[in-house]
Amino acid sequence: MITRQIAIIGAGISGLACAYHLQERAAAQQIPLELKIFEASGRAGGILQTEKKDGFLLEHGADAFITEKPWALELARKLGLESELTGVQPEHQQSAIVFRGRLWPIPKGFYLIAAPQLKTLWQLPFLSLRGKCRMLLEPWIAPKPAVQADESVAAFMRRRFGEEALWRIGQPMIGGIYTADLEKLSLAATFPQFREMELCDGSVIRGLQRRTAEKEARGPRYRLFQTFKGGMQALTDRLVQVLGPKMEKNKKLTQLEKKANGWQLQFADGSHFEAEAVCLALPVQSAAELLVSAAPAAAGELAGIRTEPALTINLAFRAAEVAGLPRGAGFVIPHIEGYPLVGVTWAHQKFASRAPANGILVRAFAGGAYHRGLLESGDETLVKLTLETLQKILGLTALPLWTKVQRHPQAMPQFEVGHLDRVRRLRSAVEKTPGLFLTGNYLSGVGIPDCVHEAQQTADNILRLFKSLNPAR
């Protein structure tokens, strides 16, 4: 059989997972494959980056993945990393929300925007009496008729639960996940299960009651969050180790040209590479720029997917100087509270071995749709804003031992209303460009499991192409 050449551009979790699945499945199907991975920077892993400093373990990107979507967990097991998995510490399986400048615990059993028990909703400490009454009306509000049109998360929450629940609960809980403006965020592309509950059960609350009875939804689901004892970078480090010499770093792709028998790649260092197929595992805007000439229809759809920045601010403290931290994994902050942060994680409490015995590690999040301007702020300004927020909410006045700020300018693609239709058009345009493949967090989900699953599906599509090209033996 003829050996097929594939170039994967980008060595983040999407590119590495695609390469691993390609290698595994090609061997199983006896498809001869020459695989190359090109990474523009000097390190693999993309947004997954773990740093160790003075006994602290810092995450500059995602600090965990959810096992409710099984693909990242399955990959970790295949890579022999199962013994390295660890979950949220049992005594801290709780989070809080800021209401009028104070922290209030999110009740057990609460699921993103509501709870199955009306008693829980009535006792919510972060809603006014009027807001609680409006939420409790939800089971008696008629469902919106089944139509094809998408709607925003804000529109859905407003008609189901009211304005106060939208801004006090939905915006920090859902908007924080996507760093998004809920007035633009697509319900169908992000949380279609809520629309399904409305249609099938007549109510989100009734739907949650059914899911609880079926043991599918169990409170804050902290036991479903997993990470690695040595940090999330362990996943991409192991992928790099398994893939071996197939990857080249500091190779920035500057031009992609379609040829009769495949693709020619030109890099910033002046080198070239030819392959029958190419997979772009890049941030969405970078992929759009590369495809302007080679696949203009696909480039146009990609360019229409906006992104928002994400920033992490890690602060290390002496435990003796910080007294009275609340229990739990951290808290989220509604935008209407007026603070510059999206949320805060007590990293040393959330997962074990994130700080020495005499240390405290705080991880703050900023940026997104409501604070995109902070991307241009200096490190000192971001640290100052974080400390001021901690002082106002918690009374924390200690000065950190050191701080680390990380910026991810295009980290969060925005799944805006109509996103699913855009992705369908994008996939159609790509299918009309033989040998071109895309994978990344802008297609079907921003989480690590979503990226792994999308990458695996892309790898399968590549192999289907190669099988169609290889003559039968």
Task: Please give a structural write-up.
By secondary structure, this protein is of the alpha/beta class. Helices cover 35% and strands 22% of the residues. The strands form five sheets. The protein has a seven-stranded mixed sheet with strand order 8-7-16-17-18-15-19. Strands 10-2-1-14-20 form a five-stranded parallel sheet, with helices on one face. Strand 1, helix 1 and strand 2 form a beta-alpha-beta unit. The longest helix has 22 residues. It is globular, with a radius of gyration of 23 Å. The N and C termini lie close together (7 Å).
Notable characteristics:
473 residues; alpha/beta; seven-stranded mixed β-sheet; five-stranded parallel β-sheet; 16 helices; globular
Summarize the structure.
This protein is of the alpha/beta class and 473 residues long. Helices cover 35% and strands 22% of the residues. The strands form 5 sheets. A 7-stranded mixed β-sheet has the order 8-7-16-17-18-15-19. It has a 5-stranded parallel β-sheet with strand order 10-2-1-14-20, covered by helices on one side.
